[in-house]
Specification:
By secondary structure, this protein is mainly beta. The chain has two domains: 60 residues, no CATH class; 107 residues, Immunoglobulin-like, CATH 2.60.40. It contains one helix and 13 strands; from the N terminus they run αβββββββββββββ. Strands 6, 7, 8, 10 and 12 form a five-stranded antiparallel beta sheet that branches. Strands 2-1-5 form a three-stranded antiparallel beta sheet, with no helix packed on it. The chain has a three-stranded antiparallel beta sheet with strand order 11-9-13, with no helix packed on it. The radius of gyration is 38 Å and the shape is elongated.
Length: 195
């Protein structure tokens, strides 16, 4: 009986030895020692061929790195105007003239040119733009990456106060129009693409 137990223990010790090493076959939870042959002098780029090997069953082949592919992409333009809570509030500065400004952050990954324009809402009384400027300049400004603050200044004139509704508008803070910002990147277009 002792001889049988000893023989079984000896076999159990010999089985894992079959899988010693860092090969590419897995069997019984242990790596096997299978030889891979390459046609490029043993480099890891392949192509790979495996020789016939004796190994204990069950066993499975492991994944091995055989090739890499470089990945690239064409990076597009990105700009964000942080105007979610921004209001340009006008105050009276002269008879029939109102002015005001607002400053907010701009984030961009490319140098851009920003242009501003004003339009009153439908139904608003007559008024005209006296001046509209960006960052104390004209109605166009350049913002270089990665971004900067942008100040929009607006002054309107010839506001017809007599045409505002006494019950719903006079003495209240109401929206009268919109400043629209348009933008373009300051790079030469590449029609064929860059990738």
């Amino acid at each position: 009986m002792k001889k049988i137990i000893f023989a079984v223990a000896l076999v159990a010790l010999m089985v894992p030895a079959t899988f010693a090493g860092t090969g590419y076959l897995t069997g019984n939870g242990t790596n096997g020692s299978v030889d891979w042959e390459t046609t490029d002098g043993g480099n890891s780029t392949g192509p790979f061929e495996v020789k016939g090997e004796n190994y204990n069953w069950p066993a499975t082949y492991d994944f091995v790195t055989a090739a890499t592919i470089r990945v690239r992409m064409e990076v597009g333009f990105w700009i964000k105007f942080n105007t979610k809570d921004a209001w340009l509030t006008l105050k009276q500065v002269e008879i029939h003239k109102y002015a005001g400004s607002v400053t907010f952050a701009v984030q961009n990954n490319v140098n851009v040119e920003v242009h501003a324009s004003f339009a009153k809402l439908d139904g608003m009384p007559g008024m005209e733009v006296d001046s509209l400027s960006l960052n104390e300049g004209g109605d166009t400004a350049q913002i270089n990456a990665p971004g900067a603050n942008l100040k929009v200044y607006l002054k309107i004139k010839n506001v017809d106060l007599s045409a505002f509704n006494a019950d719903t508008q006079v003495g209240k803070c109401i929206q009268i129009g919109l400043v629209t910002l348009t933008v373009r990147p300051l790079v030469r277009p590449n029609i064929a693409g860059v990738c």
